[in-house]
Amino acid sequence: MRILLFGMPGVGKGTQAKLLSSKLNIPHISTGDILRQTVKDGTELGKKAQAIMNAGELVPDDIMIGIIKETFSQPRCKEGFILDGFPRTTIQAKELEKLIDELKLSNVVVVTITAPISEIIKRLTNRLACKNCKSIFSKDELEGLNECPKCGAKNSFYQRKDDTEEVIKNRISVFNENTKPVLDYYNGKREVFYIEGNDTVERVNEKILTALNKFSEKV
Length: 219
Ligand code: AMP
Known about the structure:
The chain is an alpha/beta fold. It contains 9 helices and 8 strands. The strands form 2 sheets. Strands 2-3-1-4-8 form a 5-stranded parallel beta sheet. A 3-stranded antiparallel beta sheet has the order 6-5-7. Adenosine monophosphate (AMP) binds near residues 32, 64, 162 and 171.
């Protein structure tokens, strides 16, 4: 199965993608994680991407399309994938559709997680990530801990530079301006499931799996 995971920043895409990846045994492709790795590695692309990401803006389409083409050519993506954070613009979506046609990829489904803006801002300002395993937590659940509950890494928590209130507001407006139209593009073109994300991680995951089962029965 090939899942395109949509939703505003902070809606829980990363967390759900990781869970789905281990349950369905298909790779989680996060374009945000790929870019953060290039920043960490200090590559030319990383240097270019860093300032854009810190401001909550979008990395240019041609760069992102190049990243996706390279990723899709990897053997791990052969049997399926969960795409988290791509496409974010209609240009990216159209290029992705071309690539899907060229590579004759089947079973492509769009899953959109939704949540109220107030909840999203609360979650993003309250979130920490583990440098080692990239798991995401709320500050509340890590209170008093210095070891990652998922991988055991010590003192590995950090707040993303783009999780400050000002940048979060910009990321939300960038989403409304550039990424919402992508959903309009997919409506009627591909099966789109809307999942209410203002719920526990487990329940959101169950709802996504139910939707995916429905999709599998149809194709
Ligand atoms: P994320 O981890 O998905 O929230 O992505 C973090 C940041 O990486 C975004 O705010 C963008 O600056 C950049 N980014 C990730 N994916 C894309 C994409 N498909 N197009 C443009 N920029 C992206």
